[in-house]
């Protein structure tokens, strides 16, 4: 134990970096476990869409959406949803809702806004459209 204390005393910046990193890992783990937004893989999203009639909300920009999106998805940019402008998706409040972005990094924050607004079943597509395309799942431009 004394060796650890000596190391910490001799290398305070390295020790602080490790403590900060460990704290971040713990925080992210706890936050993801407590989140009401469930992260789902592409195959799970397909099941939600086909079996539970989930609505797909693509939170990318209109330009990105036009380049290709999941069939049946509606486009509501993340900025609009984060500003609590939920008019376009209010009708889906009691249905499963699959959120899609390009890489899966934006949907978590949007999902938290939606769960606070009373949406019951919010899912975020892991890996976003990048993962969807890599699995050769269908994409449409209509």
Automatic annotation (TrEMBL):
Family matches, as InterPro entries:
GlpE_sulfurtransferase (IPR050229), Rhodanese-like_dom (IPR001763), Rhodanese-like_dom_sf (IPR036873)
Question: Is Protein biosynthesis one of the keywords UniProt gives this record?
Answer: no
What Pfam family is a match for this entry? Rhodanese
The record's listing under CDD domains reads: RHOD
Q: Which UniProt keywords apply?
A: Membrane, Transmembrane, Transmembrane helix
Which positions fall inside the Rhodanese domain?
50-141
SMART domains for the chain: RHOD
* Record-annotated membrane-spanning stretches: 12-30
Annotated protein name in UniProt: Rhodanese domain-containing protein
Task: Name its species.
Answer: Zobellella denitrificans
- Give the organism's phylogenetic lineage: Bacteria, Pseudomonadati, Pseudomonadota, Gammaproteobacteria, Aeromonadales
């Amino acid at each position: 134990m004394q060796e650890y204390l000596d190391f910490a005393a001799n290398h305070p910046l390295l020790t602080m970096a490790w403590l900060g990193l460990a704290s971040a890992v713990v925080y992210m783990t706890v936050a993801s476990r407590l989140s009401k937004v469930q992260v789902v893989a592409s195959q799970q999203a397909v099941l939600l869409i086909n079996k539970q009639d989930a609505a797909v909300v693509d939170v990318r920009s209109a330009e990105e959406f036009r380049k290709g999106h999941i069939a049946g998805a509606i486009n509501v940019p993340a900025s609009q949803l984060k500003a609590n402008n939920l008019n376009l998706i209010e009708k889906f409040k009691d249905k499963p809702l699959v959120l899609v972005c390009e890489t899966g990094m934006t949907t978590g924050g949007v999902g938290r806004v939606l769960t606070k607004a009373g949406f019951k079943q919010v899912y975020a597509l892991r890996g976003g459209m990048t993962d969807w395309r890599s699995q050769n799942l269908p994409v449409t431009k209509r």
